Amino acid sequence: MDSNTLLSIRNLTCDLMSIHGIVYALGGVNLDIRPGEIHGLVGESGCGKSMTSKSILQLHDRTRSRMTGEIWFEGRDLLKVSRREMQKIRGSRISMVFQDPMTSLNPLLTIGEQISETFRQHDGCSRTEAKNRTMALLKKIGIDPPEKRYRQYPYELSGGLQQRVMIAIAIACGPSLLIADEPTTALDVTIQAQVLELLRNLSREMNMSILLITHNFGIVAEMCHRVSVMYAGRVVEHADTKTIFRNAAHPYTRALIGSIPKAGYKEEYLPVIPGAPPQLYRQMLVCAYKDRCPCADSRCDQVPEERLIGEDHMVACHRTGKGGEVISE
Predict the structure, then answer these.
(1) From edge to edge, which strands make up the β-sheet containing 65-73?
(2) pLDDT tens digits, residue range 73-85?
(3) Contact yes or no for 250/237 (Cβ under 8 A)
(4) What pLDDT does residue 205 have?
(5) By the 8 A CB rule, do 153 and 102 touch?
(6) pLDDT value at residue 24
(7) Exposure pattern of 156-194 as b/e (b: 16+ CB <10 Å)?
């Protein structure tokens, strides 16, 4: 793992047991996150974004899941560390903000108690020290007045304040990596902008990397340095944000960007991607996007390998050439 990489995922697979049989949720994910960057992970619902984040933190039930590959973080392969070591890493070195704070916060504990618990658990603080650090943290992330908020319960706060509390818990111990899983989904547009600005400022101040999981390309354009596009449990394209928007190479990436409503659009129907993502109850032996792709041909009967087509621009498509152009037969 190179010194310019904070997290490196290599050929990560994850199979889950379900009532319908084995779900091949991840089929060989490769992903790199650099120190201090905001990295977008984009794709439709069910493509494996949240599954990837939970795999990083080892949140799967080990009796019902099977993972292979490598997840290198700060010199260690997280798939090989013990449960006790993983508990120390969660919250202190890698933290996560979930998309619905109301179901993530404990309704029976005050906001102050829930944030203080993080300091006591990871830093061994006394109750008094933990409270003082919590009050300072509440003020830092814009939850005013901290004395009042410390004593309140989650139901007494708005959705935006609840999400700020989740962010406070996540950054309390100064993690190197924050995973934000759809952090603005349940919020209105004004509050979304405030939460995103908070995340951007925290990343800059703390030199903290953020893996931002979203399906909103508007958020990607505003927030991210680099982007990875997922489909059916694999990363199908990766590049810096400008390259993705100006020269997307994978047909799926182009279709996603083409589906974004544009100002002044006057057609009766918005552009859509036909069909639906495949059910992952069997391993993919062909290109997963084949049935939905307008460029599909006989070459798509095999799973495409990832190829570099430019500086830090990777794509997994048989029909994409060196400059991103479509290769004909």
Answers:
(1) 21-33, 7-18, 65-73, 76-77
(2) 998 999 999 989 9
(3) yes
(4) 93
(5) no
(6) 94
(7) ebebbbbbbbbbbbbbbbebbbbbbbbbbebbeeebbee
